[in-house]
Amino acid sequence: MNQIENLLQYFNLEKLEENLYRAQSLDIGTGRIFGGQVLSQALAAAYRTVEGRQAHSFHAYFLREGDVKKPVVFQVDRARDGRSFSNRRVVVIQHGRPILNLAASFQIPEEGYEHQVDAPDLSKPDELDEKPFLTNKQMQSLTPRMRRLMTTQGPFEFRFADDIDPFDLGNNEPIRQIWFKARYKVPDHQPLHRQLLAFVSDFHLVATSTFPHPVSYLDPTLQIASLDHAMWFHHDINVNDWLLYDCFSPVASEARGFAQGRVFTLDGKLVANTSQQGLIRQRKKARDGYKKQK
Description:
By secondary structure, the chain is of the alpha+beta class. 15% of the residues lie in helices and 36% in strands.
């Protein structure tokens, strides 16, 4: 089983009752549920209750850390079904308590006015290599568990259009530009591609807000946690083709970093926007799984 087939298993939600579903949790090596997993699964649960309509947006709040060793339950509220739009509210539950609230809106296919901004003029993915995330020396400063996390080949391939060293403590622009695509063929099913885009959109985004500051987002004393996440879909998505994730952080304040991302196709079509706010807090005690960098 390849990495994409393995990931898609977690989108096979078990129906427990009308509007109630259950799914297993994916361990990407952090010891806690990855935010992109629960986002994409909640969107999948909402999709189970609509027909003939595609998700055009969702807004989610992360409430508690998820237990990767336990399954997750999704309770869907069919808030509204209109002639053009449907709205769903999803409460994600674990150990009897909500860990995420998500609201999603769906629309019938419609034609209308169109315009968009231009895509950034960057090197194309075939001009770039898939480079190791960290150097061997940097890897040695991590514990074995964290080294596994950083070296395990995931379901998506990333090629960085910029060349930012995660341990560079200089005053860098709060920008991150990454090409990505699925490593193996994803079935031609549009809801699935939108769910996978929700999954991958949680990588790299809010960490962009640390770049202008004298700290690495891999610093063991830096706490980063997603607080909320939103996404808007403008056109059909195909994660089998290269997509550009153009991330920018316009502001950080009050122990929170805010970042926005635009998703472009290889030929420059803007297919999605996303935004995320995360907790960014310096603390005295290092996180489990890290050693202090030398």
